[in-house]
Amino acid sequence: TEGFTVAIDGPAAAGKGTVSKAVAAHFGFAHLDTGLLYRAVGAKVLAGADPVDAARTLIPDDLENDSLRTPEVAQSASRVAVIAEVRAALVDFQRSFAARAGGAVLDGRDIGTVICPDAQVKLFVTASPEVRAQRRFAELSGKGIGDSYDRVLADVRARDARDMERAEAPLRPAADAHMIDTSTLTIDAAVAQAVALITKAR
Ligand code: C5P
Hints:
Layout: E1 5-9, H1 16-27, E2 30-33, H2 35-46, H3 51-56, H4 71-80, H5 84-89, H6 91-98, E3 104-108, H7 111-115, E4 121-126, H8 129-142, H9 149-165, E5 178-181, H10 187-201
Parallel strand pairs: 1-3, 1-4, 2-3, 4-5
The structure holds cytidine-5'-monophosphate.
């Protein structure tokens, strides 16, 4: 039997990850951060691998790597994510995860539009580029990665442009997605909105 699937999409640093983890914990659903798949491929490409080979041979252990959270890997991820064969190689894993009994939350860019078009709940979590860059800047500073705010904002804009303008599975809200704009919401308020929407759909 098919499980209950929550699809959460949105641009970088909008709060998707935080909302997804909180929702998964609240309902006891499994959580997959699909950005990690593209980051793992991006990291292998930075180490010299062919992107399509890397995507086809990805194993779960590849996702457990702390070094996937760097700006260089994020940019490499968004470059490999435009390649149709890379995306195709990652579809089955994501769909099996979504169908697991007990419910699943997947967050990414194309979950509601391509990976799980029949998800019971679709959320599109967004915020202004400046707010997202400020959050990412604070997060990176906390980890001792010393990029300037301007550099982080430029990275956010470059990744937005690449993710939204690509031909294959571009970042956009599904027609039936609920929008959550976190520019002026606290984390708790954003999570409360998400939980309320999911509770209504269950
Ligand atoms: O979410 P995160 O910032 O970790 O994603 C890294 C990159 O992977 C994104 O900028 C995007 O290009 C790509 N991605 C994607 N589809 C997804 C998840 C991530 O294209 N479902």
